[in-house]
Amino acid sequence: MRFLQNPDPERRAGRMRMRGMLRKEALQIIRDPSSIAIAFVLPIVLLFLFGYGISLDAKHVPLAVVVESPSAETAGFAASFEQSEYLSPQRFGTIQEAEQALIHHTVNGIVWLRNDFEEKLLSGESAPIGVIINGVDANTARIIEGYVNGAWTSWLQQRAAAHAGTLNIPVRLQPRVWFNAEMRSRNFLIPGLIAVIMTLIGALLTAMVVAREWERGTMEALMVTPVTAKELLLGKLLPYFILGMGGLLLSIGMAMWLFDVPLRGSLLLLLLTSALFLVAALGMGLTISTAARDQFVAGQIAIVATFLPAFMLSGFIFDINSMPAAVQLVTRLIAARYYVAILQTVFLAGNVWKVILLNSVVLVLFCVFFLGLARRRMVKRLD
Amino acid sequence: MWTHLRALIVKEMLALLKDKKSRLVLIAPPIIQLFVFGYAATFDLNHVRYAVLNEDSGGASRELLARFEGSGTFECAARLSNDTQIAPVIDNKRALLVIRFPSDFSRNLESGRSADVQVNVDGRNSNSAMLVLNYVQTIISSFNSSWIKAHGGRAPPANLVVRPWYNPNLVSRWFIVPGIVGLLTLLVTLLITALSVAREREAGTFDQLLVTPLSPFEILLGKAIPGVLLGLTEATAIILIIVFWFKIPLLGSLIALYLGLLLFLLSSIGVGLMISSLAVTQQQGLLGAFLFLVPSIILSGFSTPIANMPEYLQTLTLINPLRYFIVILRSVFLEGATVNLLWPQYWPMAVIGCVCLFSSAQLFRRRMY
User: Fold this and answer.
1) Residue A303: which of B134, B190, B313 has the nearest Cβ?
2) ipTM, 2 decimals?
3) d(CA A169, CA B147)
4) Which residue of B has its CA nearest to A320?
C-alpha cells in the first residue's frame, strides 16, 4: 500500500514530462492548422475525387459500326449492339470514315460488316465480322472486346431462336463472381484507397515534426530538458495517432455510407488492424524526419517514398500476382500492401482469419522496425 | 537582366544540388521508381492460380483442362475433391478461381447437348475477376470451335475477327510505361519548386531576395529555370530507358514529344511555384504539393480512363496539365502522332502554365509591400 501512496518519484516525473511534451505538441497542432487539415480535409478531398474518379468500369463506349450493304440481317446485328448499356454505337458508311474517327479518338473501336456478310451468312459458311479496337489502353481494349463478344453472342442466340433452331454451344461458361457479384470496381478500389490515404496522412503528419525542431533550433532547447528520447518520440507519436484515427474513421464512414461499399467483416477488427497500420505509417514519417533533420529534404523524401509506392505497389490497383517475381519481392517492403489485403478482405469477404492474422503480424513487424529505427536515430546529442 | 538571372539560377542550382541528401532524393528515386513501376504496372494477368474440382470422369473435361495448362497464363494450385473445399481456397487467396466440372459434363457433350462448366472467381479485385473471366471465355470458345470441328455439328453462322490497332498483343505495359514519364516528371518538378519559396520564407532569405534589385519576375524565372533544366534532363533519361530498356516503340516525332514536355514543365512548374508562394511554412507547402500531386495523377487517365469518370469530374480534369501530357506521350509513343494532331493538347498546357506563373509573380509582388 505504501507503494501506491508514494509512487516511484522517477515514474511520476516521467508522467509529468510526458504530459508536458503532449501539451506542447497539441498546441503546435492547433496553432498551425495544416496538421488538422491533413487529417480531416485530405481524406475528404481524396475520397471524393478518387471514389468518383477512379473507375475501371467502361460504360457507353463509343463504337463505330460500319455496314457496307445494309439488310435485315445486318439490322438485327446492329440492334444487338444498341441494346448493350456498355456500348454506344455510331453508324458510319465506309470503313475509311470509321478509321478516321478511330485515329482522332472519337470512337474506341470499329465493328465492320463487309459487302459479302449476308451472302456468307446465308451460304452456311461462317461469316467474318471485323473488329478493330484501339489497343493503346490494353485493359480497356480487353474489356471492350468482352462487351463486343457479349453483344455478338446475344445476337447469335436471338437469331437462332428466330430461325427456330438452337445455337450449338458445346461448353457454356457459368461464371460466379464471389464477394462482388456485379463486379463494381469501386468496391475493391475504395478499400484500397483508404490504405493509400492513410499512408499519406501518416507520413505527412510526422515527416516534418522532428526535422522542424532541428531546423528551428528548438531541438537543442528540448535536449537540455530532462525529457528522454523515448518520451520525445512518444510525444511526437500520440497526438498524431489520435488525429490519424480521426481521419481513418472519417474515411471508413465515407466508404460505407457515401460509396455503399459493404463491410462484411467486423468493424472492431478493421479498426484494430488500421491502428496497427497507422502506427507503422507514422513511424515511417518519424524515421524520415529524424533521418533528414531538414524539412525540405524530409518533405522531398515523404513525397517520393509514400504516395507512388503505395499507389503502384500495394495491390490497390495493379494485381501483385501479375508482377514479375523480383517486383513482387519489392512489394513486400511496402507496408500498404499488407493493409490493402486486410482492407479488401474485411470489407468484401469478411473475417477470414488466416489472411488477416498473417498480414497483421507483418504490420506489427513494420511498426517495430520503424519505431526502433526512429528511436535509434533520435539520439540526444548534437553533432 | 541576364547577369541577374544567371546569378539566381546558379544560387538555385546550388540550393538544390549542394546538399547530398537532396541531390540523392532528386536523382535516384525517379530512376529506381521507373524500373520498379515499369514492371509493376500491368493489368495483364499471368501466373493465375486456379483450383479444379472435377466431378466428371470423362475425357472431355481433361481435354479442356489441358488447354488451361497449355495457355501459359494459368497455373494449377490445387485439386479439390468436394465442394466444401471451394470456399476456403478462395477466401484464403490460394487460388483466384475454382473451375468446377459437374459429373455429367462429358456425357452431355458427347450426346450433343450443351455442358456447363462452373467458374468461381474471387471478386475482391473486380478488374482481375473480369479479365480472368474473359481469358476463360477465350479458352472455352477455342475449345468449342475445335470440338465442333472434330465432332461435326454446325459452326456459328458468324465469327468475330478481332484486330487491335497500335498495340497488337494488347500489352498493358505499353500503355502504362509512357505515362510514367509524365508521373515522374511531375514528381521531380514538384520536389524542386513546391517547397522552395516556403523554405526561403521560413529561413527569412526571401525578404533578402526581395530587397535585391531583382524584379519579382526575375525571381520567378530564377526559380523556374532550374526546374525546367532538371526536368528536361531527367525526362530525357527516362525516355531513353523506356525506349532502350523497356523496348516500348517510339513511333512519333521527337519534336512533338519535346514540345509537349516543355509545355508540361512550364505548367507543372507554374503550379508548383504557386503552391510554394501561397504556403507560409514548408509543412503547408508539402500539404499543397500532395493536394495537387495526388489528384492530378488520379485524374490524369494514367491508370484508369477519364472516359469512365462522371461528367463533372471529366470537366475538372481539363485544368490538369498531366492529363494532356499523358495523351501526348501515348499518342507519340504508340500511335506515331505528329505535332499537327496534338494541338488540342498543347494549348491548354500553355494557358495553365502562363496563368500559374503570372499569378505566382503577383503573389511575390504582393508580399513585397
Assistant:
1) B190
2) 0.77
3) 10
4) B40
